[in-house]
């Protein structure tokens, strides 16, 4: 029997898995630049950073399988390549970003050490925890999330009470689509595909006799509640950043802005406390990413311990190399990869949510192929070839907003269903 306590526990687990400390640096700066278009930015950001991830959890509630099941209707080979690609991106970008956030928020303001030294020591510790699996970080993680949320609520409340609701002029040309693209940087949609399977496994380990429909209802409710939590935190941080438009220099970095907002609202002691908590939460996230990747690779090589060890070493070496760079650089480097993998992830999530009669194997294949093809111009534009493909960008609807895949995927989805009905 599913109780309210079960729903609450799973909701909090989902929220904690989504709520990466590195994500906290994104909404304040987005709001800071949004000005009087803050509401459009919120809509865009929450579409890609809240709604799509929750759809991902709802898809898991329907599938009740693993990450591999998301793309297997395209083909087993494609699904395996997609899984490898997601994990490769995860250990190359969001994992190192946690070290960079830790350095900029928790180390640089208090010590004079270099970012390279921070990155080396950080990922040596990550490696130690990945190799010697322990429940310590799970326990710490459960304590960190409530502590950070408490401080954030205090920051948001103080900003709302202490600052005039004057947002100034926007610095963003396309607020809605800029919000969507910044939401990509949370990696929450990818996180939904990955962690949803973890939640399913956890539920089955506790009670493998729970009926399919009961589990579906549990995950559905938990997904909605965790989504509401993400919405309120992200919206509060974004609005807080918007209220601070006159308080900081226009070119302030994301981490400096979050620290500055904390300092102005709660004072130095709370700011130091927040920096420590965020650093610890970033560390648990990095350990989780490297461990999850190593587990996946180990599973592909018949539970080989060597595969686990090699993957852990590679993940930590990549972390050291990328983690020494500043957060802004890592976010810029991540954009091309996200412009390619995120559209594929979004369509896989949505196709797994719609009723099966509208998402046959044929529909899966043609929609994913169209998405990949029409994501290429957006990918090329993100790496500096926008002038070379200017004619193509002008021809593809929404391509000027780096969303050129959206309409082709929708059209092909409709045509694929018409063709499927005709073939029958």
Automatic annotation (TrEMBL):
Belongs to the branched chain amino acid transporter family. PANTHER family: BRANCHED-CHAIN AMINO ACID PERMEASE BRNQ (PTHR30588:SF0), BRANCHED-CHAIN AMINO ACID TRANSPORT SYSTEM 2 CARRIER PROTEIN (PTHR30588). It is a multi-pass membrane protein. It comes from Croceitalea vernalis. It comes from the Bacteria. It is found in: Cell membrane. Pfam families: Branch_AA_trans. The gene is brnQ. Keywords: Amino-acid transport, Cell membrane, Membrane, Transmembrane, Transmembrane helix, Transport. The chain crosses the membrane at residues 7-26, 38-58, 78-95, 107-131, 143-163, 183-205, 217-239, 272-294, 306-323, 329-351, 363-385, 405-423. This is Branched-chain amino acid transport system II carrier protein. Its main location: membrane.
């Amino acid at each position: 029997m599913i109780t309210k306590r079960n729903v609450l526990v799973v909701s909090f687990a989902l929220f904690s898995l989504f709520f990466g400390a590195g994500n906290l640096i994104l909404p304040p700066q987005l709001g800071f630049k949004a000005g009087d278009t803050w509401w459009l930015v919120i809509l865009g950001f929450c579409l890609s950073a809240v709604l799509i991830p929750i759809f991902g959890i709802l898809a898991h509630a329907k599938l009740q399988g693993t990450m591999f099941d998301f793309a297997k209707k395209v083909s087993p080979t494609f699904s395996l390549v997609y899984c490898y690609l997601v994990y490769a991106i995860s250990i190359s970008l969001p994992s190192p970003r946690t070290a960079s956030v830790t350095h900029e928020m928790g180390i640089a303001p208090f010590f004079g050490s270099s970012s390279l030294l921070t990155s080396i020591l950080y990922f040596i510790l990550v490696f130690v925890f990945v190799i010697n699996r322990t429940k310590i970080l799970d326990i710490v993680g459960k304590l960190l999330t409530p502590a950070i949320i408490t401080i954030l609520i205090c920051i948001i409340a103080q900003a709302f009470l202490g600052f005039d609701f004057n947002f100034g002029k926007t610095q963003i040309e396309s607020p809605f689509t800029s919000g969507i693209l910044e939401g990509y940087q949370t990696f929450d949609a990818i996180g939904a595909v990955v962690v949803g399977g973890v939640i399913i496994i956890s539920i089955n380990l506790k009670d493998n006799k729970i009926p399919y429909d009961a589990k579906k209802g549990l995950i559905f409710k938990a997904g909605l509640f965790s989504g509401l939590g993400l919405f309120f935190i992200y919206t509060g941080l974004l609005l807080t950043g918007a209220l601070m438009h006159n308080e900081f220099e226009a070119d302030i970095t994301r981490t400096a802005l979050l620290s500055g907002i904390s300092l102005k609202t709660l004072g130095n002691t709370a700011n130091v406390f927040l920096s420590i908590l965020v650093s610890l939460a970033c560390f648990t996230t990095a350990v989780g990413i490297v461990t999850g990747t190593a587990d996946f690779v180990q599973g592909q090589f018949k539970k080989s311990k060597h595969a686990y060890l090699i993957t852990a070493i590679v993940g930590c070496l990549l972390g050291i190399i990328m983690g020494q760079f500043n957060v802004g650089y890592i976010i810029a480097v991540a954009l091309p990869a996200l412009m390619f993998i995120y559209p594929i992830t979004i369509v896989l999530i949505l196709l797994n949510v719609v009723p099966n009669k509208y998402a046959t194997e044929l529909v899966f294949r043609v929609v994913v192929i169209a998405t990949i093809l029409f994501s290429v111009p957006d990918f090329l534009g993100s790496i500096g070839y926008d002038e070379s493909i200017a004619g193509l960008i002008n021809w593809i609807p929404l391509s000027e907003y780096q969303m050129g895949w959206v309409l082709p995927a929708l059209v092909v989805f409709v045509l694929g269903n018409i063709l499927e009905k005709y073939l029958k």
